[in-house]
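Lab manual, section 2.4: Encoding a predicted structure.

Procedure: take the sequence of the chain (88 residues), apply the prediction step described in section 2.3, and record the output as structure tokens. A sample record is shown.
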Amino acid sequence: MTIGGNAAMGAAAATTYNKYIVLFSFEPGSQVWVALNEIAEAPAGASFATTTSELNPSARTVKAGDVLHFYTDDATGSVVSAVIYALF
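Recorded output:
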């Protein structure tokens, strides 16, 4: 999901915003990895591993042009909702 331009919806053409907050909600029981400007992936192996992804985050701050990537290893898929608000 690419974060769109820098004009807030309904704002005057001269009003621009560059920072946003994205609020997530996930289907109960789902495991969705989210990464900002990286490829989303689950950690490899049974032990603690480094990853650039976050499991089921509640929110992320982003800026115009950022890209959010989502990954799940659930074969049936998972439902994710993302709502974006401009920060003033």
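Check your result against the sample. The chain is about 0% helix and 35% strand.
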